[in-house]
Amino acid sequence: MHNIPFLATGARHGYTTTLGDLRNGLAIDLSHFKQFELDADAKTLTVGPGVTVGEVFDPLFNAGFDIQTGSAPCPSFIGVTLGGGVGRFQGVYGLLADALISVRLITADGEVLQVSRTSYPDLFWAIRGAGANFGVVTSATYSVHPLTNNGDMFLAEFLVPPRRWSEYFRIMESMSPLPAELSSLLLNSFNTTTNQTQLFAHWAYKGSETEARKHLSPILNMNLTTTQMRVLPWNKLVENTFAGAAVTVCEPNTNRNLYTLSMKNYSASTWEAVASKLATFYARYPHARSSSLLYEFFPNQAMSAITLEGTAFPRRDTTAYIIHTSETDNALARFGEEIRRDVAATSGYPEITTFVNYAHGDETLEQIYGKEKLPRLAALKKIWDPKEVFSFNNGLPTTYP
């Protein structure tokens, strides 16, 4: 045995600081594992770990299907799944992990297993929410969904000037809970053209324009500056979000520093205070103007319909996520930590909580995986990875507490 530490990598979209614990190790590059098999009769899709989220869109749509996905095109489709996989369609279809049927898994001792509800069910439970801890997935099979409304969605985006932030946040709060088909993103950033902090609002409705306008009437009645409002097919949603800004999070070899939080409560007063604080921060630290805050408002009806005990994913009552993105810098890091604390106070959870795929790396195990999940996860870790070979991506212990 050589005992060389390693990471299995797909699209290399991970951010957590725990990845830095790998020293003098190897990367097992799975990016060329591009298996893609769609069975239209069985309504299943099988992919390899090199297939990215964006590479799924067009083939599925062209075959008459869709699936719940993330909001960025560049992560590995399987990699997203192993953490649970949140996204704009989770109100209708649930998490990406909820679509998972089976995986081909290589364990720490080199055994190749077919893992599903009926084959190694405990391991199947664990990989849906904590999957990076239990092996290398070389293929995964999912359920896919026939298109509804011909695959069309309604998309609307608006600019919200500072003088109307308070009004917008109050309306957002009043719209909670969002209908299953309606999701929103809100980008709080610095506009170098206008030289001021702005809110850039995105709304997507999985259904007809008529129904979308009914649900969006409180926002439409604000008569905000509209940057786009149109019907488009679901496979074109990500590339048309915020004028293609999703591509910027896919640039390789870029230092990024994320502080994130999960929320189940909407709080207009908190968001307004955070936006004001961000504007002040931009004024004080001009070099910080490339940083941003992103709110993801994702409905959770289908996600929460699955029992909490059914998978390792810890929080199915979450309705929103906030992500502070910046370069590595001490002032920016302190600000990210401060924003995380501020939003946590009204999040509806008793402490900071985060989604494992979004974790910064400084959170506790309980904040990432949930205290109620950890005893079973640790017991399974002891069985399947007692030497903690898979330990660099928000790693689990083999005992708890």
UniProtKB/TrEMBL annotation:
Q: Which residues form a coiled coil?
A: none
Q: Give the keywords, sorted.
A: FAD, Flavoprotein, Oxidoreductase, Signal
Among Pfam families, the record links this protein to: BBE, FAD_binding_4
Q: Where is the FAD-binding PCMH-type domain?
A: 1-147
Q: Tell me the domain of life.
A: Eukaryota
Cross-referenced InterPro entries, in alphabetical order?
A: BBE, FAD-bd_PCMH, FAD-bd_PCMH-like_sf, FAD-bd_PCMH_sub2, FAD-linked_Oxidoreductase, Oxid_FAD_bind_N
In its UniProt record, a GO molecular function of this protein is: oxidoreductase activity
Q: Does the keyword Oxidoreductase apply?
A: yes
| Assigned protein family | Belongs to the oxygen-dependent FAD-linked oxidoreductase family.
Q: What is this protein called?
A: Fad binding domain-containing protein
The beginning of the lineage is: Eukaryota, Fungi, Dikarya, Ascomycota, Pezizomycotina
